[in-house]
């Protein structure tokens, strides 16, 4: 078994190097090359041959190879399909905003949660990603576009809290000043609502933003589209969100995909406002992206306006999210699903 060198912190790399009989200062040099996104050990020019040979026989460098790339004609959003050494693929979406570049990355290959509107949920689960594979998605996009990314959202394929240890390690690595140095305040983690893991995350007191995929004003509607709602009732989930704010001081964001005729009535808006009353939060309304085979349609613009007005009346802060890259299957899971159908892995 080769060691995943890019998932190590500098300190772990130092211990590894020293344990294997090499001088400690070499770790910093190797780490520097890894942060520069080299893809093989021979590129590490200031590392002596014996150490390079040792690394080659004992370690591997994670790489996210671009399999497919689509650029939106409308807004320059870029959608990548990346592959890893075992041939498995994930998606990432690079978005350009006034304040810089933001990337939406994947945390798992597929997802076990099975939400009915989600393309990722429909393709099943293959495996977790390791921290280096999350880093590599960012590095590959930066290299490809020759840019520096300033924001990360964990909203691609997979449920981050179902891959807790790897995701937390990734957050610590990517935000570290000897690594990509993307501050925790520029990282958002989105979850479908695995309650005990929300508490576990809160207790780590990371300075990231937690985003919770609510998509319904009550359990009855939520259970129709999100199987996780059968395990954790909405009351418990909302209590976990209140506690998350209490423990971390960070406001929670809610995602609400508006599906025509399912969760977008005026009654639904009023009930949602009641449930969120008094919470320090923000609601992102997203017209659902149509995924083949789901039968769901997005709410029309008048429905969106009526819904948001009801929330605003009750002092719940909400915005309709700009849908970027609507022409390039930018809803995560869609591109991989197509790739699978065409015979890919
Ligand atoms: N598993 C996590 C993060 C990945 S999904 C979660 O569920 O939160 C990222 C976001 O995309 C979630 O809010 C999810 O509900 C939403 N989403 C999935 N499929 C969608 C679709 N077809 N249209 C709009 N949003 C979708
Ligand atoms: Fe998984 Fe999130 Fe998709 Fe649900 S919405 S199936 S939790 S990726």
Describe this structure in words.
The chain has 345 residues and is an alpha/beta fold. Helix content is 38%, strand content 21%. The chain contains 13 helices and 14 strands. It has helices at residues 10-19, 25-35, 49-58, 119-122, 131-145, 164-175, 195-204, 219-225, 228-231, 234-248, 266-276, 301-313, 334-341, and strands at residues 3-4, 59-60, 65-71, 78-83, 89-97, 100-104, 108-110, 125-128, 149-154, 187-191, 209-213, 252-258, 281-287, 318-320. The strands form 3 sheets. The protein has a 10-stranded mixed sheet, covered by helices on one side. Helix 7 packs parallel to helix 10 and helix 11 runs parallel beside helix 12 (301-313). The longest helix has 15 residues, at 131-145. It is globular, with a radius of gyration of 21 Å. 39% of the residues are buried. The model has no long low-confidence stretch (mean pLDDT 93). Residues 111, 113-115, 118, 120-121, 158-159, 192, 213 line the site of iron/sulfur cluster.
Summarize the structure in short.
With 345 residues, the protein is of the alpha/beta class. The chain is built from 13 helices and 14 strands.
């Amino acid at each position: 078994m080769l060691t995943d060198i890019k998932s190590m912190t500098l300190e772990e790399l130092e211990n590894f190097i020293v344990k294997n009989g090499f001088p400690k200062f070499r770790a910093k040099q190797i780490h520097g090359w890894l942060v520069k996104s080299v893809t093989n050990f021979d590129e590490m020019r200031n590392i002596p041959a014996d150490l390079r040979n040792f690394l080659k026989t004992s370690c591997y460098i994670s790489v996210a190879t671009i399999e497919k790339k689509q650029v939106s004609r409308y807004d320059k959003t870029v959608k990548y399909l990346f592959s890893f050494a075992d041939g498995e693929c994930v998606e990432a979406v690079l978005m350009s905003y006034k304040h810089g570049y933001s990337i939406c990355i994947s945390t798992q290959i597929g997802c076990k949660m099975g939400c009915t509107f989600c393309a990722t949920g429909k393709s099943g689960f293959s495996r977790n990603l390791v921290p280096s594979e999350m880093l590599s998605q960012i590095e590959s996009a930066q290299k490809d576009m020759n840019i520096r990314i300033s924001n990360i959202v964990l909203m691609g394929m997979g449920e981050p809290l179902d891959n807790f240890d790897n995701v937390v390690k990734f957050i610590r690595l990517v935000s570290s000043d000897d690594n990509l140095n993307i501050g925790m305040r520029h990282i958002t983690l989105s979850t479908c609502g695995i309650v005990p893991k929300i508490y576990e995350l809160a207790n780590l007191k990371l300075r990231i933003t937690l985003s919770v995929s609510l998509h319904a004003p009550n359990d009855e509607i939520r259970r129709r589209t999100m199987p996780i709602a059968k395990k954790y009732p909405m009351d418990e989930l909302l209590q976990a969100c209140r506690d998350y704010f209490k423990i971390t001081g960070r406001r929670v964001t809610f995602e609400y995909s508006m599906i025509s005729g399912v969760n977008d009535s005026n009654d639904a808006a009023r009930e949602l406002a009641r449930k969120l009353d008094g919470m320090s939060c923000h609601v992102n309304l997203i017209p659902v992206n149509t995924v083949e085979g789901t039968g769901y349609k997005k709410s029309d613009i008048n429905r969106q306006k009526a819904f948001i007005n009801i929330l605003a009346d009750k002092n719940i802060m909400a915005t309709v999210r700009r849908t970027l890259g609507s022409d390039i299957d930018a809803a995560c899971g869609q591109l991989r699903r197509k790739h699978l159908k065409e015979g890919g892995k």
